[in-house]
Structures are given as C-alpha cells and as structure tokens.
Write a structure and sequence with these properties.
Layout: H1 3-6, E1 24-28, E2 37-38, E3 44-45, H2 47-59, E4 63-67, H3 73-78, E5 84-90, E6 99-101, E7 110-115, E8 129-133, H4 137-145, E9 152-156, H5 159-167, E10 173-177, H6 178-186, E11 194-201, E12 210-215, H7 219-234, H8 237-245
Helix pairs in contact: 2-7, 2-8
Signal peptide: 1-21
InterPro entries: Solute-binding_3/MltF_N
Pfam family, one: SBP_bac_3
C-alpha cells in the first residue's frame, strides 16, 4: 500500500490494521484551519485530523477520514454515511437531538471581526449585516440577541466565503470562533485593517464546548471515544497536538 496516495482519504497508514475490524468512518470540514484543511498534496491535516488519529490509535480503531461542508455533516451522520464527526462542532441541545456527543474536547469563545477601531455598543447593531456560519452556535446566539436589535444575518456554508465578503465591504462584521478568525483571516494579508472588536462572547448557554458527534444510539463507539479522549488528555498526547497549532490552551486543563 502506498501511504502517500491514501493519506488524503484515510488514517489507515498511521494505525495498526486490525484483522476483520470494521472501519470507523470519520468526517470533518476542511474549510476551518488550523482545525482542518487540505494540503496541496491532498493530505488532510490540522488539529481535528490529528486528534482523530490519536483517538483511533489509543482505542485501537481502524479509521478513515472524509471531508464535506460543515452544514451537511450532521445529516450525513444521521444517514449513517459516517460513524462520527470530528469537526470542531459546538455542543448544543438542538444538535444533541440528532447526534450523541463525546465529552468536550476544546472550548473557544466567539468574537466579532470588523474594521479596526470599530466601537461595539447596543446602538451599533442597528442596520448592520453580520456574517455567520449557517449551522453555527454563533448563528443561534446572534439570532437571539442581535436580530432583535436590527441586525441582518448573512449565512454561509464556509467561513472563508464570509471573509471575502467582509474584505469587499459586503458585511459590517463576521461573528465566529475566535481562533479561526485570528488564524485564517486576521493573520493573513486579507485581514489587514481588521481586528477583533467588542467583548469576548462566552455565554455558557451557547458555548458548551466542542464535542465529537457520534451516530445517535451508538453507545459502544461513544464509550470508546470518551475513554480514548480521556487517555490522550491524561498522557500528554492532547497537549502535544494542541501545541502544534495553538500558542495557548484550548482545553480547560486543571
């Protein structure tokens, strides 16, 4: 087997092959660096794929990874096209009706990105257009808190599309996970002249951490994922993965 050719679609080359083992099908969204992206050679890289590798290795699972846009992931898991999703998915009560969630594996607050120097207060929101991911926790919060203040939400399947609209002044702001905004926009040439504005948003009603989504009712796989996740946190593997991509803790270590 040529592992270089298979890497883009699977993790098989990094894991022990188990005789007669059923392959665990994992899906992620590669429009969300540094959590996940596709390299020019087709390989899937980032925090989420690395955590997937670590969990599968610890649990001695044979796994393969595929990619799709974020808003199609839960329906695909529900339809049993995939066994689990490791895709930086915020845990919410609504999503928990459709899939089962692992224990939290990271927690990052939300931030607004707008022109540098923008002052955010209640009056600012009236008449503004803010971009959010269509199936994100940020959409839920913005719908509840800002739409009544006069905000129009523009919905996106890929956060990178919202950055293009923001840089072309078709949006007043984008609301998203803070780290993604920092790594994939503010630190890029496109983000020049923009910054985080307003407060850090971390309302526990909306920010319950991100979890690994498992097919509803698959208690055996969920237990294996949670056990492996705890082990990689306890043995330092999680920290090693985290430190490849972040300069600060994204998990609330004690």
């Amino acid at each position: 087997m040529n592992c270089n050719k298979v890497l883009a679609l699977s993790l098989l080359c990094s894991l022990p092959l188990l005789a007669n083992a059923q392959t665990v099908r994992i899906v992620t969204d590669v429009s969300y660096p540094p959590f996940s992206k596709v390299n020019p050679d087709g390989s899937i890289v980032g925090f989420d794929p690395d955590i997937a590798r670590a969990i599968c290795a610890e649990a001695k699972l044979q796994c393969e990874v595929s990619t799709m846009d974020f808003d199609g992931i839960i329906p695909a898991v529900q339809a049993k096209k995939y066994d689990l999703a490791i895709a930086s998915m915020n845990i919410t009560p609504e999503r928990a009706k459709a899939v089962d969630f692992s224990d939290m594996y990271f927690n990052i607050p939300g931030r607004l990105i707008a022109k540098a120097g923008t002052k955010i207060d209640d009056a600012w929101f009236k008449g503004k257009t803010i971009g959010v991911l269509r199936t994100s926790v940020q959409r839920e919060e913005a719908t509840a808190k800002w739409v009544p203040k006069g905000v129009k939400l523009k919905l996106y399947g890929k956060v990178t599309d919202s950055f293009l609209d923001l840089s072309n002044q078709r949006l007043d702001a984008v609301y998203l996970d803070a780290n993604v905004g920092d790594e994939d926009f503010l630190k890029k040439p496109m983000g020049k002249g923009y910054s985080f504005v307003g407060p850090v948003y971390n309302d526990p009603k909306y920010y319950m951490g991100s979890g690994i989504a498992v097919q509803k009712g698959n208690k055996e796989l969920l237990a294996k994922v949670n056990t492996a996740l705890k082990k990689i946190i306890d043995n330092g593997t999680y920290k090693q993965v985290q430190n490849k991509y972040f300069s600060y803790d994204i998990y609330p270590f004690k």
